[in-house]
Structures are given as C-alpha cells and as structure tokens.
Amino acid sequence: MTVTDQVNGNVNLNATANSDALENSQGHANKVKVAIIGSTGYGGVELIRFLLGHPQAEIVSVISASSAGLPITDGFPHLTGILVSDLDGVDPVEIAKKADVVFTATPSGVSSKLVPQLLETGVKVIDLSGDFRIKDSSVYEAWYKHDAPDEQVLEQAVYGLCEINGDDVGGAEFISNPGCYPTATLLGLIPALSAGWIDPASIIIDAKSGVSGAGRGTSLMTHYAEINENLKAYKINKHQHIPEIEQNLTQIAGEPVTVTFTTHLVPMTRGIMCTMYAQLNGTYTNEDLTELYRQYYEGRPFVRIREAGQWPATKEVFGSNYCDIGFAADHRTGRLTIVSVIDNVVKGAAGQAIQNLNLMMGWDETTGLKLSPVYP
Ligand SMILES: NC(=O)C1=CN([C@@H]2O[C@H](COP(=O)(O)OP(=O)(O)OC[C@H]3O[C@@H](n4cnc5c(N)ncnc54)[C@H](OP(=O)(O)O)[C@@H]3O)[C@@H](O)[C@H]2O)C=CC1
Ligand SMILES: CC(=O)N[C@@H](CCC(=O)OP(=O)(O)O)C(=O)O
C-alpha cells in the first residue's frame, strides 16, 4: 500500500499505510496497482514521471536487477522528495502479490524470459522491448540475433500502436508496446498507404534519434566526445525495427512491403524525426492530403496534423505524448514527403505504454498524459 505524504505530496513506497481511511482520503482505494521492472532505465524512469501524476494508477513497486535494496534516488536524485522507495528485486511471484499490472521496461532477450513468468502469475503485462512485436519467430531471430520468445506467449501479445490497433487493446492481458522508430514511421505512412495514394514498393525512411534512444548504458557510440557536434548513420539495412515496420505496412497494404530504412544518431537528448518519401499513385494536392490525414486521425488526441507545407520539429513534442506530422506533395517528382516527430521516450516508449494501460483498462486514453511539450 503506497503512502502519500499529506504535507509534501511525495509518494513513499517504503512506509505502510495503517488504515483504509487514509487510503480512501487520498483516493487510492480503487487505483490500479502498477509495478515497473527496469525502473532504473530511461523508459522506466519516464514511466515513473507520468504514473506519479496518473489519477487512476498507483506505483507499488519499482524494480531493478542490479540495484535491488538501494533507494531509487541513489541513481535518480531528481526524484528526491517525490518518490521515496527502495528498489525491489526481480521476483515475479512477489511482484504479483503487490501489482495488478506490470510494465517491463527491460532489454530485448530479458523481456522474452520475464514476461511468461509474469503472465503465469495472473498479472497484466505491458512490455516495452522488441521481443513480442514480430509475429514470425524466424524473422525475429534473423534480425534480433537471439532466440525468439515462447510461441504461445507470443500469440497472446497485442501490438499496441494505439491510434491503429487501439480497439484490440481494450481488455487485453498482454500488450507489446511498439518501437520508437516504428511509432513515428507508421503513424506518418499509414493514412496515405491505406488510402492507396502511395506506391508501397517505393517507401524510403530517413530516421534520426536523440541519444536517449540507446538507453542509459554508456558505449563508444553515445560517449559525449563521439556524438557531440557529430551526426552518425548506423545499422543501415540491419536495424531491428525494419521487420516491425514491414510487418505492419504489409498488413495495411495487403501485399508484402519492404522499406529502405536508415537511422541516424543526432547530438540531442530526446526526439525522433522520420522523413519519409514515397511515389504518389495520382495527383493529390496538399489540401487533399491534409483532409485525408485529419480524417484518419479524427478523435485521436495525440496525433497532430500540421497545415500543408508546415513542418514539425522535435522540440515541439519534447516531453509529451504527441506525434506531429507534416507533408507535401512534390508534383515535379510525383513523390510525397512526410515528416513525423515524436519524443522517443514518451510516445516512443513510456507515454504510449501508459496510453495502452488506459485503453486496456477502459479509461480515457489521455489519462495522466495531458502534458504540454516542454518548450523551449
Ligand atoms: N530509450 C528509448 O527511447 C526506448 C526504449 N525502448 C525499449 O525499452 C526497453 C528499456 O529501454 P531503456 O529504458 O532505454 O533501457 P536502459 O538501458 O536505460 O534500461 C534498461 C533497464 O533494464 C533493466 N535490466 C537490465 N537487465 C535486466 C534483467 N536481467 N532483469 C531485470 N531488469 C534488467 C535495467 O536495470 P537494472 O540493471 O538496474 O536491473 C534498466 O532499468 C528496451 O527494451 C528498449 O529497447 C523502446 C522504445 C524507446
Ligand atoms: C538511438 C538508438 O540507439 N536507438 C535504438 C532504439 C532501440 C529501441 O528503442 O529499442 P526497441 O528495439 O525496443 O524499440 C536503436 O536504434 O537500436
């Protein structure tokens, strides 16, 4: 049972509330109890930021394999006075005694082993890794270079790209949260592809990410002196998000789709921009495109369509769950250019995971997510 300090409003997971009256007075009685495995990573700590402000969910356990027993503020001093909690260890049975829903913000290869154990205990799971996104195990193994998860568990996974598959998420027990690049890419391409306005064989995606997309661990790739004032292309034709993008575009197009997908690392902390090109199948004006996209995303609060010819920037979604999309038809080349931006840690990970929690529980999908982007 979580205790919220009545004076400072901080959440103390180490203390025990001693009466239901206290719980009721703080409105916790009917909250869904959530645990976060991988709470010491960038995705996990962003889940904490949003869940602390969520009116219907209550964090009951923050979990780490390497730092169990230590206060979370040891690694994340920015939570001082906000979340008082020692990190719990990774024990699915103990976690299930406390939580109704578990977020696994853990690396690929770790989630594939943890999730089956968690589901066995009866908790609902939202997994942020790539382990359960690819439905064909041989494709998964070819791109991820390690064993695919158990087939039966894989079959249970609902792919949670909320604006596209939101109807499948309601009432689901296990959600596989989409990748960051696939989220920006798919939301940008799907309206034009599903309308048949672009040639599926012609798609090129030029993608760029801030460094937090690589997680909190250090590497030569993300070392300050290596990436500051630098711009690097990486994993060309080998990126693990290629089969995820192709699987979803194939479903929409009803025919096999392959894409050229090139990722770049940019010297900024957060943000993804995907600039996409495809051959138009007819003569469509920018106004036609605006109408198509606005209609497609009508009633979807987290997708914002720019006026034709206006281009979104990563700063305009920084720290928020928005995906902003701009486009223009080029009548000289007959091609369409689409620019889609998200915050990789929010709409690309923790924010979309909470949007999925909301849809899973039948709540308004914006619950706990109505934060404006941080600007400038
Ligand atoms: N960063 C991003 O923008 C995005 C990330 N993702 C995916 O989300 C997941 C988390 O990413 P991110 O937060 O960036 O990664 P980080 O590297 O920042 O964090 C990884 C987390 O996993 C935990 N962990 C590592 N090994 C184990 C283990 N054996 N058992 C339990 N926990 C373990 C680590 O904690 P500890 O060592 O303390 O146990 C840490 O909390 C990954 O699958 C990533 O691919 C998806 C979309 C976007
Ligand atoms: C900048 C950077 O390194 N980004 C990571 C994004 C991976 C990620 O977020 O993980 P998922 O595969 O779980 O989606 C990459 O390109 O591999």
Structural account:
- The protein contains 13 helices and 16 strands.
- The protein is α/β, with parallel strands linked by helices and 376 residues long.
- The strands form 3 sheets. Strands 11-12-10-13-16-15-14 form a 7-stranded mixed sheet. A 6-stranded parallel sheet has the order 4-3-6-7-9-8, with helices on both faces. Strands 1-2-5 form a 3-stranded mixed sheet, with no helix packed on it.
- β3, α2 (42-51) and β4 form a beta-alpha-beta unit.
- α2 packs across α13 (346-361), α8 (162-169) packs parallel to α13 (346-361) and α9 (180-194) runs parallel beside α11.
- It is globular.
- The relative contact order is 0.13.
- It catalyses: N-acetyl-L-glutamate 5-semialdehyde + phosphate + NADP(+) = N-acetyl-L-glutamyl 5-phosphate + NADPH + H(+).
Task: Tag the structure with descriptive keywords.
binds NADPH dihydro-nicotinamide-adenine-dinucleotide phosphate, 2 domains, seven-stranded mixed sheet, globular, 13 helices, Dihydrodipicolinate Reductase, domain 2, binds N-acetyl-L-glutamyl 5-phosphate, single chain, 31% helix, 376 residues, alpha/beta, Rossmann fold
Break the fold down into its secondary structure elements and pairings.
Blueprint: E1 3-4, E2 11-12, H1 20-25, E3 32-37, H2 42-51, E4 57-63, H3 72-75, E5 83-84, H4 92-98, E6 101-104, H5 111-120, E7 124-127, H6 137-144, H7 151-156, E8 158-159, H8 162-169, E9 174-176, H9 180-194, E10 204-209, H10 224-227, E11 232-234, H11 241-253, E12 260-265, E13 272-279, H12 286-296, E14 303-305, E15 323-330, E16 335-342, H13 346-361
Parallel strand pairs: 2-5, 3-4, 3-6, 6-7, 7-9, 8-9, 10-12, 14-15
Antiparallel strand pairs: 1-2, 10-13, 11-12, 13-16, 15-16
The chain binds NADPH dihydro-nicotinamide-adenine-dinucleotide phosphate and N-acetyl-L-glutamyl 5-phosphate.
